Amino acid sequence: MDTLAQLPKYNLNEEQEKKLILREYRALLRALKTKLKPGDKRLIRLAFEMAVEAHKTMRRKSGEPYILHPIAVARICVEEIGLGVRSTICSLLHDTVEDTDISLEDVEREFGNEIARIVDGLTKISNVIDVNASQQAENFKKILLTLTDDPRVILIKLADRLHNMRTLDHMKVDKQLKISSETVYVYAPLAHRMGLYNIKTEMEDLAMKYLEPEIYKEIARKLAETKKERSRYINEFIKPLKDKLEKAELKFEIYGRPKHIHSIQNKMKKKGVSFEEVYDLFAIRIILDSTADKEKEDCWKVYSIITDEYTPAPERLRDWLSNPKSNGYEALHTTVMGPQGKWVEVQIRTKRMNEIAEKGLAAHWKYKEGSSDENRFDKWFQQIREVIGNQDTDSVDFLQDFKTSFLAEEIYVYTPKGDVKMLPVGSTALDFAFSIHSAIGVKTIGAKVNHKLVPLSHKLRSGDQVEIITSNKQKPSEDWLNFVVTSKAKGRIRDALKEEKRKIADEGKYTVQRKIEGMGAAFNQHNIDELWSYYKLNSPLDLFYQVAIKNIDLKELKEFKVFGDKIEAPRPVKIQEIKVDGFHQPLAKKDAELIIFGESSDKIVYNLANCCKPIPGDDVFGFVTTGKGLTIHRTNCPNAAKLMANFGHRIVKTKWAKNKEISFLTGLKIVGLDDVGVVNKITNLISGELRINIAAMTIEAKEGVFEGNIKLYVHDKEELDELVSRLLALRGIEKVDRYDTEL
Ligand code: MN
What we know:
This protein has about 750 residues and is an alpha+beta fold.
């Protein structure tokens, strides 16, 4: 990822710099033109001059004058999100209070209370990075509270993040990884939730460029190679439709739009297919110019014209006209069988819907006046407020819970009376019970979905009507946590369990007291601490609880020594912890474990993460583990994004040193036709020709197809890649995949 070297050196003189700044500023004004009212221009000029003055000595990592950043953020707000004058002023000032001598009072004096409040919100959330995990959850909570105050804060923050992603090339690699992970983990879902599809997809693509550069480049290359062929197909597909739509006297635009690299890769991963097997590399989009009263009718008219020409897959019809998504998205999607028997997705929407799809929330507001649509955002904000207000957000879980609760797509379900409840996808009957009321949730014993009895863990679907059955004897249990997804339900169940545990622990406390006093010692803090740490528990509460439920019978107390009123635990016998699993070759430790960290070439002891088993040549990063030193993960490890987003400060840039002495365990899955001697061919190639050590191998053949799982030791990625391409060249072998997960 050594992109720095290829970037053009920034070298403008003062005069050229001034011209550049003015040019960018004028472009901003031009974009705002239709929104300017008398007096606005003066205010914007004032904000611009204030920002120029405040940032005058500052430069970005690229060498550019800093002021270009706030101007660019303002332009994104205006051009890509559709925000207006006030947001422009806030964008221009967004980094001033944080980084310069300008105070919030200065902003308030010049621009008034509304703008000062937004700038304050932006300042408070500017440091979400670089802190420990729980503080980050705290900061994230702050973002959300401001968000519910004034959504413009989050929209400007998203523009800020997008511009930082667009200019990420200039940052150091560890920063690139950290910022990219945070972007996919938090900001892209947030953009999605606000209905900003374009910004969301651009964020994901940019992040992938840094997190998985190789796959990114490869998909980009293949997309470019197949472009001609694709546009030929699109033209062939569109032609008959165009004629018919024109005959129907509809005003429309029709075009094919390539899918984004990130979403292509998502598909490849999810379905386990290769690039060539992803059928929907593009979608056809039809944008109608309809009057407000004809929108729905026109969209269905187009649908019927398309399905006259091409056969639709009935299960792939998505009607977001009658029931828009909660982020405001409206459209009609269908998938039809195009020429050469290929499935093609077609998206039908009007100009208004298209603007909402692209600019999200802001466009939604623009059309809100006169629309009878109940405001889904208000509902969403209200739910967030409720949860944040009540919940103890001390843990890292908060971020994860929040993501599943509020950033995921949702379903609509009905109460027996016909009231609608919005819940995230994956919600169960129990989540629904808690969404009605906590007092109902804790007493739930079952539910009826569409009049049929179902267990608590039953997953709900949009349109379900749900009736909850309760009993006063019911009590929440630990396993409930395994099937609820909403933060509200999780929080309440945890609270109830804690309460229950405390009650039970009280009995255990009495038992412990009797035992200690029976030894002639005192029931005091020292002795209690001695006990729970001896049993390797987390707290006195745990100790009392475990005793109460008879998991611990305290008979080891006999081994304790008593000095006066104090007791002392016997020294634990050392148990040699040697893990011997079948494949772990005792590698020459210490000297062999060489990798280069950062700019220096320090030798450090490290572990290879079990979750992704990196080998030399992979893009990797180091993660500081308490007590265990450094753990090396692949940057595309399933856990990486979470680690990097939550514990950015514990990420260490890591590179492999050239070392041919040690080998690393990895695994391949091979699929092919069950040919005579195929096993022989494979083993001959691996251990014979390439002299690679096989640790284990299983081959299963069924109905003419075999699947082989091979664990082997390689020196680096180069060697593995060579092996994979040689395997693929063997006759009968269809697919070779490297394991991503634990072997
Ligand atoms: Mn900024």
